[in-house]
Every structure is written in C-alpha cells, then in structure tokens.
Amino acid sequence: MVVIRLARSGKINAAFYRVTVADKRRFRDKKYIAKVGWYNPRSNDPKSRISLDMVQIDEWIQKGAQPSETVAKLIKDYKKSLKN
Question: Kind and range of the H or E element at 77?
C-alpha cells in the first residue's frame, strides 16, 4: 500500500518535515517514491509554514495512495488557506 506521510528532517529541537509518498512497509525517513511538499511547524509566517504540490497529491490519491491523518489535516488546512 502507498501512503502520503511526513518524513522528519532538521536538527534536534528544530523539526522540519517533508511530505512524501512512500510504501507503507518502509521506515518513516527512508527511501520514498516522491516528494510532494514540505511542512515547517516552527515558522511564524503562515505562508512559509507549508507548501504542497496539490496536482501531484491529487494524482497519487487517484492512484490509491492514502494520506495519513496528519497529512490529511494539512491538506485540508492548505486548501482552506488558498481560498482566502
């Protein structure tokens, strides 16, 4: 099964996440199929907090990829921020 999930990177106490498409059986931070965005929870500016390639994400979801709970929430918030 293919999932869309966060892969952690960055320094200790300064987390930065990549939104990746990966095989569910792989470890969280190991090899992934595609990088479809990033998320920086420490950013104060809402525009530099998250960046997603919605075209690629929609393609992967149509192919059967399942977003994790956190990524689904990020996608929902990102779409909401684009409308404003």
Answer: helix 69-83
Return the H-helix or E-strand segment holding 18. strand 14-23
Would you call 75 exposed, middle or buried from its count of C-beta atoms within 10 A (0-12, 13-18, 19+)? buried
| Amino acid present at 15 | A
- With CA atoms as reference, report the closest residue to 70 among 52, 83, 45, 47: 52
Assigned fold of 2-83: S16 Ribosomal Protein; Chain: A; (3.30.1320)
Q: Read off the pLDDT of residues 8-18 as tens digits, 9 standing for 90 and up.
A: 988 888 889 99
Q: Are 62 and 49 in contact (CB under 8 A)?
A: no
